[in-house]
Specification:
- α1 runs parallel beside α13.
- The protein has 13 helices and 16 strands.
- It is elongated, with a radius of gyration of 22 Å.
- It has 379 residues and is of the alpha/beta class.
- The longest helix is centred in the last third of the chain and has 28 residues.
- It has a six-stranded mixed β-sheet, sandwiched between helices. It has a five-stranded parallel β-sheet with strand order 2-1-12-14-16, sandwiched between helices.
Amino acid sequence: MKKIVIIPDSFKGTMSSRRIGEIIAQEASDCWPGMETIRVEVADGGEGSVDAFLSVLPGTKHQLTVQGPYGEPIQSFYGQMGDTAVIEMAAAAGLPLVGEKLNAGQTSTYGVGQLICHALENGARKIILGLGGSATNDGGAGAAAALGVRFLDSEGKSFVPVGNTLHRIQHIEMHAAAERLKNVSVVAMCDIDNPLCGPQGAAAVFGPQKGADPEQVVQLDAGLHHLADVIQRDLGIHVLQLPGGGAAGGMGAGAAAFFGAALESGIDVVLDTVDFDQMLEGCSMVITGEGRIDGQSARGKVIAGIAQRAQKKNVPVVAIVGDIADGAEQMYSKGVSAIFSINRVALPFSEMKHRAPSDLRQTVRNVFRFVKLAKEIQL
C-alpha cells in the first residue's frame, strides 16, 4: 500500500467529514506505517462547504457582517483560495439562522449577495456558490439586488423582492450587476434537479419545511413563475424548467439568470477544485462513505461521484457507511468495490450515534486488517 485517499461525506447527526477522515487516517497509519494518506473533507454546498475546501487548499476564511434572512445584521463568512471564493448561501440565508421564526415568504438572500460583493472586492474572479439549507423562497432576487440588479414595480420604483412580493416585479435591469460580474465565473453547487415551479418545484417541495402552509405554497409558486416570465422577457433566459432551478428556494434559477452561473453537481465541483484526478495517481485505494447508502446514492451523490472518477483510474473504492439500505448494490456498477456498515449491534439510532466514532474505528481497523491479510496471501 503506497497511498490512500480518504474522502468521506459526513454522517449526519453523528460525525463530521473531518472527524471521520481523522479516524480513518489514524487507522491507516497504524496498519501501514509511513504510507501516504490524503484527507479531503466533503460537503454538498450546504453547511461545511467552506471548511471542506479550506481543508485541502491554502486560503483564508473571511468574517464579515451582512444582512440575515430578515434583514438583521449577522456575522457571516466565506472562504477564499487565491482568486476563487467559496460561499455557502446558508451562511447568510440558512434555516438555522431563523430558528423557530419560519416564513419563506418574507426571508431574503440579500446577505448572500453581500458575501459575493465582498469576495469580488477582495479579488475573486471565480465564485463557487453552495446551494443548500436555505430559509428563503425569493428566487435569488435578494442576492441579485445586493449585486446591483434593479427590480422595478409598476410605478418604476426599485425594490428588493422577497417570496411574497415577487409578483410585483414588472421589469429587471441588469446593467450595474453585469458590469460588476464582468470576467467573473460563477459555479453553483447543486445536488437536486427540481425545477423552479410546479409539483416538484421550490415552493411545493421545500416550502413547507420553511414554514409555508398549502395556501402560501400556491402563492410562492405563482411568484416564482412570474419571476421566470419576467426573466425570460427582459433577459432572454429560460429558467422555468432548468434542472436544479428550484434549489434553495429558486436560488438555482436566480444564480443562472442573474450571475450566469453553471449549475453543477456538488461533488463534481469539489473533486475538480481539489484536483482529485491527480490525487488518484499512484493511489492504492480510496476510502469514502456517508451516513446511509441506498439506491438513491447512485444518482450523483458523493460516493457515486467519487467512485466513477476512481473507476476510470482503476483505483478500488471502499465505502464505509452508517446504514446499508435496499438498492445499495447499484453502487457496485458505479465503481464501488465493497461496502461496509459501522453498525455493530442492533440498537436505536439515539443510542448508536454515541457509539459511532468507536464503531467506525473498529470497522475500519477490521477492513484494513483484512486488506493487509489478502495482500500477504495474494488472494
